[in-house]
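This part of the workshop introduces the protein records we will be handling. As an example, a complete record with its sequence and its C-alpha coordinates follows.
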Amino acid sequence: MKTTENYLPITRKLTILLADDDNADCLLFQEALNELPVVAEFSTVENGEQLIKRLTEQGDDLPDVVFLDLNMPRKNGFAALGEIKRNPDLEKLPVIIFSTAQEAYGVNQTYRDAAHYYIRKPTKFSELKKVIYEALKRITQENNPLPMKEDFVLTGD
Protein backbone atom coordinates (compact mmCIF):
# COMPACT_ATOMS: atom_id res chain seq x y z
CA MET A 1 0.00 0.00 0.00
CA LYS A 2 1.53 3.28 -1.08
CA THR A 3 0.98 6.50 0.79
CA THR A 4 0.83 9.47 -1.51
CA GLU A 5 0.49 13.17 -0.85
CA ASN A 6 -2.86 14.28 0.60
CA TYR A 7 -4.33 10.78 0.68
CA LEU A 8 -5.07 9.03 3.95
CA PRO A 9 -4.84 5.26 3.69
CA ILE A 10 -8.05 3.33 3.18
CA THR A 11 -7.50 0.59 5.72
CA ARG A 12 -10.03 -1.94 4.49
CA LYS A 13 -8.88 -4.31 1.72
CA LEU A 14 -11.14 -3.82 -1.29
CA THR A 15 -12.18 -6.01 -4.17
CA ILE A 16 -12.69 -3.80 -7.23
CA LEU A 17 -14.21 -4.87 -10.52
CA LEU A 18 -13.96 -2.58 -13.56
CA ALA A 19 -16.27 -3.19 -16.51
CA ASP A 20 -14.74 -1.39 -19.49
CA ASP A 21 -13.94 -2.47 -23.04
CA ASP A 22 -11.10 0.05 -23.48
CA ASN A 23 -7.79 -1.64 -22.57
CA ALA A 24 -5.94 1.67 -22.25
CA ASP A 25 -8.54 2.97 -19.78
CA CYS A 26 -8.29 -0.26 -17.75
CA LEU A 27 -4.50 0.05 -17.57
CA LEU A 28 -4.68 3.72 -16.55
CA PHE A 29 -7.25 2.88 -13.88
CA GLN A 30 -4.99 0.14 -12.49
CA GLU A 31 -1.95 2.41 -12.59
CA ALA A 32 -3.84 5.13 -10.69
CA LEU A 33 -5.09 2.58 -8.17
CA ASN A 34 -1.53 1.32 -7.64
CA GLU A 35 -0.42 4.83 -6.70
CA LEU A 36 -3.12 5.24 -4.06
CA PRO A 37 -2.89 4.16 -0.40
CA VAL A 38 -5.33 1.31 -0.99
CA VAL A 39 -4.93 -2.45 -0.74
CA ALA A 40 -7.09 -3.82 -3.51
CA GLU A 41 -7.75 -6.92 -5.52
CA PHE A 42 -8.46 -5.55 -8.99
CA SER A 43 -10.02 -7.29 -11.97
CA THR A 44 -11.73 -6.32 -15.21
CA VAL A 45 -14.41 -7.51 -17.60
CA GLU A 46 -14.92 -6.23 -21.16
CA ASN A 47 -18.70 -5.87 -21.39
CA GLY A 48 -21.98 -5.98 -19.52
CA GLU A 49 -22.63 -9.63 -20.32
CA GLN A 50 -19.34 -10.67 -18.72
CA LEU A 51 -20.08 -8.41 -15.76
CA ILE A 52 -23.51 -9.90 -15.05
CA LYS A 53 -22.18 -13.43 -15.55
CA ARG A 54 -19.30 -12.83 -13.11
CA LEU A 55 -21.56 -11.22 -10.49
CA THR A 56 -24.25 -13.89 -10.63
CA GLU A 57 -21.72 -16.73 -10.52
CA GLN A 58 -19.87 -15.33 -7.49
CA GLY A 59 -22.70 -15.91 -5.03
CA ASP A 60 -21.84 -14.18 -1.76
CA ASP A 61 -18.27 -13.41 -2.91
CA LEU A 62 -19.15 -10.12 -4.61
CA PRO A 63 -16.71 -7.27 -5.16
CA ASP A 64 -16.85 -4.32 -2.80
CA VAL A 65 -17.49 -2.00 -5.74
CA VAL A 66 -18.04 -2.08 -9.49
CA PHE A 67 -16.80 0.71 -11.74
CA LEU A 68 -18.99 0.59 -14.84
CA ASP A 69 -18.43 2.12 -18.27
CA LEU A 70 -21.63 2.99 -20.13
CA ASN A 71 -20.45 2.50 -23.72
CA MET A 72 -19.56 -1.17 -24.11
CA PRO A 73 -20.42 -3.83 -26.68
CA ARG A 74 -22.85 -6.72 -26.18
CA LYS A 75 -24.56 -5.20 -23.12
CA ASN A 76 -23.95 -1.57 -22.34
CA GLY A 77 -23.60 -0.05 -18.88
CA PHE A 78 -27.18 1.22 -18.74
CA ALA A 79 -28.54 -2.31 -19.28
CA ALA A 80 -26.03 -3.87 -16.87
CA LEU A 81 -26.82 -1.30 -14.14
CA GLY A 82 -30.55 -1.94 -14.53
CA GLU A 83 -30.03 -5.68 -14.28
CA ILE A 84 -27.85 -5.32 -11.17
CA LYS A 85 -30.31 -3.06 -9.37
CA ARG A 86 -33.31 -5.30 -10.22
CA ASN A 87 -31.57 -8.39 -8.83
CA PRO A 88 -32.25 -8.81 -5.07
CA ASP A 89 -28.85 -10.51 -4.65
CA LEU A 90 -26.99 -7.62 -6.29
CA GLU A 91 -29.08 -4.50 -5.65
CA LYS A 92 -26.99 -3.26 -2.71
CA LEU A 93 -23.71 -3.60 -4.60
CA PRO A 94 -22.10 -0.15 -5.01
CA VAL A 95 -21.87 0.68 -8.71
CA ILE A 96 -19.91 3.74 -9.80
CA ILE A 97 -20.37 4.88 -13.38
CA PHE A 98 -16.99 5.48 -15.03
CA SER A 99 -17.61 6.91 -18.48
CA THR A 100 -16.60 9.44 -21.09
CA ALA A 101 -20.30 10.21 -21.67
CA GLN A 102 -20.98 13.87 -20.91
CA GLU A 103 -24.71 14.05 -21.67
CA ALA A 104 -27.04 15.05 -18.85
CA TYR A 105 -29.33 12.20 -19.92
CA GLY A 106 -26.75 9.57 -18.93
CA VAL A 107 -26.10 11.21 -15.58
CA ASN A 108 -29.83 11.54 -14.83
CA GLN A 109 -30.63 8.01 -15.97
CA THR A 110 -27.90 6.38 -13.90
CA TYR A 111 -28.87 8.47 -10.86
CA ARG A 112 -32.49 7.27 -11.22
CA ASP A 113 -31.22 3.69 -11.65
CA ALA A 114 -29.46 3.89 -8.25
CA ALA A 115 -25.79 4.07 -9.24
CA HIS A 116 -23.74 5.30 -6.30
CA TYR A 117 -21.68 7.90 -8.16
CA TYR A 118 -20.90 9.11 -11.66
CA ILE A 119 -17.33 9.78 -12.75
CA ARG A 120 -16.58 11.38 -16.10
CA LYS A 121 -13.25 9.87 -17.11
CA PRO A 122 -10.70 12.63 -16.54
CA THR A 123 -8.05 13.44 -19.10
CA LYS A 124 -5.33 14.13 -16.50
CA PHE A 125 -3.78 11.27 -14.52
CA SER A 126 -3.72 13.32 -11.30
CA GLU A 127 -7.47 13.91 -11.61
CA LEU A 128 -8.06 10.22 -12.28
CA LYS A 129 -6.27 9.33 -9.04
CA LYS A 130 -8.32 11.92 -7.13
CA VAL A 131 -11.71 10.69 -8.36
CA ILE A 132 -10.89 7.03 -7.81
CA TYR A 133 -9.68 7.80 -4.29
CA GLU A 134 -12.74 9.96 -3.54
CA ALA A 135 -15.11 7.27 -4.80
CA LEU A 136 -13.39 4.54 -2.77
CA LYS A 137 -13.30 6.72 0.33
CA ARG A 138 -17.04 7.37 0.05
CA ILE A 139 -18.11 3.78 -0.55
CA THR A 140 -16.02 2.52 2.39
CA GLN A 141 -17.71 4.82 4.89
CA GLU A 142 -19.66 3.02 7.59
CA ASN A 143 -23.09 4.19 6.47
CA ASN A 144 -22.96 4.40 2.69
CA PRO A 145 -26.31 5.72 1.49
CA LEU A 146 -26.95 6.75 -2.08
CA PRO A 147 -25.90 10.38 -2.53
CA MET A 148 -28.12 13.37 -3.10
CA LYS A 149 -28.26 14.48 -6.73
CA GLU A 150 -25.85 17.39 -6.16
CA ASP A 151 -23.20 14.98 -4.81
CA PHE A 152 -23.66 12.31 -7.51
CA VAL A 153 -21.04 13.43 -10.05
CA LEU A 154 -17.44 13.18 -8.85
CA THR A 155 -14.70 15.22 -10.52
CA GLY A 156 -10.95 15.36 -10.09
CA ASP A 157 -10.94 19.13 -9.77
